[in-house]
Amino acid sequence: GATIGILGGGQLGRMIALEARRMGYKVVTLDPTPDSPCGQVADEQITASFTDVTAALRLAELSDVVVYEFEDVDDQVVAAIENRVYVPQGSRLLFTTRHRLREKAALERAGIPVAKHSPVSSFSDLEAAADEVGLPLIVKTTTGGYDGKGQWRVLTRESLGAVWAEMENVVSSSSESAAVDPSDAPFIAEAEVPFVCEVSVVVARGATGEVRPFPAAENVHRDHILQLSICPARVSQDVLAKAQELAVRAAESLHVVGLLGVEMFVLQSGEVLVNELAPRPHNSGHYTQDACVTSQFEQVIRSVTGLPLGSPALLSPVVMSNLLGEHLEGAIQSMPSWPDTFKLHLYGKEESRPKRKMGHINVVAESTDVALQQLTNLGIFGVCE
Ligand code: ATP
Ligand code: MG
Ligand code: MG
User: Fold this and answer.
1) d(CA 276, ligand 2 centre) in Å
2) Which of 289, 314, 309 is nearest to 299 (CA)?
3) Does 315 fall in a domain?
4) Are residues 165 and 212 in the same domain?
5) Residue 168: left (phi > 0), alpha (psi -120 to 50), or beta?
6) Does 115 sit in the ligand 1 pocket, CB within 6 Å?
7) pLDDT in tens, the chain (385 residues)
8) Minimum CA distance residue for ligand 1 atom 2
9) Residue 106 forms part of a structural domain
10) First and final CA of the chain: distance in angstroms?
11) Does ligand 1 have an atom closer than 6 angstroms to the CB of 145?
């Protein structure tokens, strides 16, 4: 059978690999850590740095198709793989989505609304952003951030200096120096969006242009980390349709082949802004594993192997709760008394740390309210609502 190469060995790669094997494919993975979550379940693992071009070419040689499962990989390495083997997502999509300013520019070109923002390379840029974009501001590193890492909230002009001092540390500790081209700036300052809720849509697009969005999930973050995804999202039909429309437009304008996770803010007015994109399966799409006809992991394999896309139809209301390091102990202890509709997914990570994503639970139920109550009753996630 055909072999799927996976660049990146995290939990997303693991869940792609598990589905790929169920569907009869072989899997090879490349990650710097031996026995990474993905490596553990692959047929073969290459242990090497993501900047090791020889290792990347070896992955290409062993694979019929290569996918990447995270964004913080050098688009030049992906370009080298692309010269040897089919990389449906492509290095171009990675180049755009791994950089918050390039991503926002691409969204704006497609007519998709985003928060007011400006590039920041210097303290005076930060001061100018406070004037032009307004306060409160959320400042983010343009590359490499996830789970809210590399973000600062600025509430007052007086605090700009202290925030800049922390930001400077981040830049000088990386090799990047102050950028000349503003679109390559190391930071982006965004207006803080007064959202009523956050939703996301994972959309699949095949090489033929076929597009299928999954239903929108409503996302609850704690400390900037996703805690709950609730599907169906508790928003109007109008907002649901708009969210799917925006996701489809984003996938089409970026010529995605594979999946695109589209995170959005919903305003009181019903207006929807796109927060960020992920050119891969998305944490907020894990609910599809136990609640949809086709999971996002099966769908990514279908889209990159040229199979027709599967039905994204939702079979049951569902709530996904992430299991972070601090939840793990309580989860394992309470497992014997879990309702029989709790579906556990663990990522095989050796070391548990607070805030580290160790697994997730999908709860299918007659309503999302019932699922949320059952999660609250576990007593390890606090009040889920
Ligand atoms: P992820 O793990 O989703 O990749 P990330 O580190 O890339 O996260 P974002 O998605 O940009 O970060 O931000 C994390 C969360 O912080 C958002 O889901 C939202 O709750 C909040 N947030 C980020 N940007 C803004 C903003 N401009 N206005 C209001 N809230 C924001
Ligand atoms: Mg992100
Ligand atoms: Mg995000």
Assistant:
1) 6
2) 309
3) yes
4) no
5) alpha
6) yes
7) 799 999 999 999 999 999 999 999 999 999 999 999 999 999 999 999 999 999 999 999 999 999 999 988 888 899 999 999 999 999 999 999 999 999 999 999 999 999 999 999 999 999 999 999 999 999 999 999 998 899 999 999 999 999 999 999 887 655 444 555 777 899 999 999 999 999 999 999 999 999 999 999 999 999 999 999 999 999 999 999 999 999 999 999 999 999 999 999 999 999 999 999 999 999 999 999 999 999 999 999 999 999 999 999 999 999 999 999 999 999 999 999 999 999 999 999 999 999 999 999 999 999 999 999 999 999 999 999 9
8) 147
9) no
10) 45
11) yes
Contacts of 186 (CB under 8 A, 6+ apart): 120, 121, 141, 142, 143, 170, 171, 174, 176, 178, 179
Q: Is the CB of 150 under 6 A from ligand 1?
A: no
Q: For residues 288 and 372, state if they share a domain.
A: yes
Distance 10 CA to ligand 2 centre (A): 15
pTM score:
0.96
Q: Is 146 in the pocket of ligand 1 (CB under 6 A)?
A: yes
Q: Tell me if 221 CB under 6 Å of ligand 1.
A: yes
What letter would DSSP give residue 208?
T
Ligand 1 probe mutation, 142, 224, 286, 322, most atoms within 8 A of CB = 224
